[in-house]
Backbone:
């Protein structure tokens, strides 16, 4: 049985939202994680979120990837991972 890595966040309405870690991606030395909703009814392929893992005061902090070029590079690397698994 596969164990899923789940992270919980608060949305704009202050409601708890659980997201599954889909993949960890590295571009150079920079780490990124891809998250997707856990709830199957809410899940949609376009509902994947990319976060950059930054170190701030020796703690890991997730920052949403908002730069389109950075997001494209992450998506390209994720596709490589998917096709190499098969």
Residues:
């Amino acid at each position: 049985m596969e164990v899923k890595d789940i992270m919980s966040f608060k949305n704009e309405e202050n409601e708890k939202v659980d997201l599954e870690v889909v993949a960890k991606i590295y571009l150079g030395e920079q780490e990124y994680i891809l998250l997707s909703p856990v709830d199957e009814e809410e899940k949609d392929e376009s509902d994947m979120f990319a976060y950059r893992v930054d170190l701030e005061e020796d703690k890991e902090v997730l920052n949403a990837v908002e730069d389109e070029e950075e997001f494209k590079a992450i998506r390209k690397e994720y596709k490589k991972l998917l096709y190499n698994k098969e």
